[in-house]
C-alpha cells in the first residue's frame, strides 16, 4: 500500500508535467501563429452571432480542433466557443458521463490560445470552466475506478490549467488535490 506522502508526491509531479506540456504546446502554437500574418476564418459565417449558440455548437461538434480553426477566430470568438462548450456541453452532461475527447481537445486548444494579461470577463469564463469540470467530476464516483480515472483525467487537466497556469487557484475547494 502506498503511503499518502507518495500519492501526494505522484499527484504533484503529474500536475507539474501537465503544466510543462501545456507550456511547450503554447510556445509551439505561438511560433505557428507568428509564421503567418493572417489566418483565414473557417467559421461558417465570419460574424457568427453570439446569440446563435446552436450554430456554434454544431460548428464545434462538426469540426476537429486545429490551429487553423483556432487562429482563424478572434479572441472574442474563442471565448464564446469556450462558453458554448461549458454551458451547452459540460453543464448538460448526465451524471456519470464526462466530456469526450473531441470536446476536451477544443477546450485545451482554446486555453492554449489565451493571451495574457487576462481580462475580467475571461477570468469569469475560466472560473466557470473549472467549476463545471469539478461538477462533472463529482458525479463520476459511481463508476468503476479505471473508468473514473479515464473520465476524470481531462477534467483534472482543465482544473489544473485554470487554477495553476491561469492563476485562478481560489476556485478549487480548499484541500482538494488533483489525482494523477
From TrEMBL:
Biological process per Gene Ontology, one example term: spliceosomal snRNP assembly
InterPro entries linked to this entry: Gemin2/Brr1 (IPR035426)
Gene3D superfamilies linked to this entry: 1.20.58.1070
Pfam families reported for this sequence: SIP1
Protein known as: Protein Gemin2
Organism of origin: Eumeta variegata (Bagworm moth)
Originating gene: Gem2
